[in-house]
Amino acid sequence: MDTQSSDIYGALMRKCHVEAGINTHCIAPKASMDEQYLTNVVLKINAKLGGCNFVLADEALVSRLNDNRTMILGVSICHGSLSESDIPSIAVGVCSVYGPKPEHRASVRAQSPNEKMVASLYKPTENGGDAGIFRELLAYFNEFAKNRKRLPEKIILFRSGVSESLYDEVLESESERGDSSPRRNDDSREDVPAGTVVDSDIVDPSMHYEFYICSHKGITGTSCPTRYTVLHNEIDLTHEELQQLVHSLSYSCQTSTTLLTEVVPIRYAQRAAAHIRKISMAKDAYVQDPDVLSRFSVLTPCSIQDVNLVNFSTPPLPRLRGEVQETMFFC
């Protein structure tokens, strides 16, 4: 493609991922295609094909996660811009299992525009079942080696984009079955050594346990510590164990040779949400129902003023075809 923001990206991904069931990768060459650029392209392609680029070097941590059958979740919501307030938000959960080969799967749902809570984390059906994100990710967990037909003993849930005023609501609506629910919020400070943790003085001891961690080493003046707040902890992770886990999970991104400012499950959830949103916004991506299409100004001539958000009904998302949904299609 000519640029990374090319208008044909969403339509092309829809043709490949939704209609044909073919995993694909687009390239927007830079003026100078240096070694770092080519390396990142190869890493992403290999990850989409099911390859493994990096593993956690902390064998003790990996062993502990496997022995305890620990499922790590990253949950994020992608909202539209101010001019797209009538377009559904995209909620994504990513299940990560760290064994000899890290496995990551995404579950995606649409929900009402700008809704802060994940509406489909749990979704009871008429027959008493559950069609929500959490249930789908549990099914993925069971498919991985050593976990077949076995539920996880421990679940760690990372949630991004939550303000302090929403802590109680998150605990009530999203963490009902989660064992630990850290929240991240970027903040900037002067450069510090990679792996620096601050859990005193500048944190609020009267609330939940929280800490700042800077896992990566940035260019001078660009280090960006991330704030984590533990809303609920039933698996008795010590503060040091939680800090070590967060630091380690910042090293295991399959598509980058550099460290992340947040844990990998959160980054993957954000990417998956953005990816599905681009596919959804492509022409004819949604079900061809007049009542559905009338809510999408990009798909129909109707004006934004014609959209009735009070009676908004969330349309179904395009469904990824074949084995695409079982891969890291969001890389």
Strand order of the largest sheet: 3-2-1-4-5-8-7-6
Give Rg in angstroms. Answer: 20 Å
Q: Please indicate the percent range of residues in DSSP E strands (runs of 2 or more).
A: 15-25%
Question: Helix tally?
Answer: 8
How many domains make up the coordinates? 1
**pLDDT averaged residue by residue:** 75
CATH top level assignment: Alpha Beta
Query: Whole-Å distance between the termini?
Result: 17 Å
State the total count of DSSP E strands.
8
Q: Mind summarizing the main beta sheet?
A: 8 strands, mixed
CATH topology: Nucleotidyltransferase, domain 5
Folded structure, characterized:
This protein has a single domain (8-326), classed as Ribonuclease H-like superfamily/Ribonuclease H (Nucleotidyltransferase, domain 5, 2-Layer Sandwich), CATH 3.30.420.10. 26% of the residues lie in helices and 18% in strands. It has eight helices and eight strands; from the N terminus they run H-H-H-E-E-E-H-E-H-E-E-E-E-H-H-H. The model is unreliable at 177-189 and 284-311 (pLDDT under 50).
Features:
single chain; 331 residues; alpha+beta; Nucleotidyltransferase, domain 5; 8-stranded mixed sheet; 26% helix; globular
Write the layout of secondary structure elements.
Layout: H1 8-20, H2 35-48, H3 59-67, E1 70-78, E2 89-97, E3 103-111, H4 133-143, E4 154-160, H5 167-173, E5 180-186, E6 196-198, E7 209-214, E8 226-233, H6 239-249, H7 264-281, H8 290-293
Parallel strand pairs: 1-4, 4-5
Antiparallel strand pairs: 1-2, 2-3, 5-8, 6-7, 7-8
Helix pairs in contact: 1-7
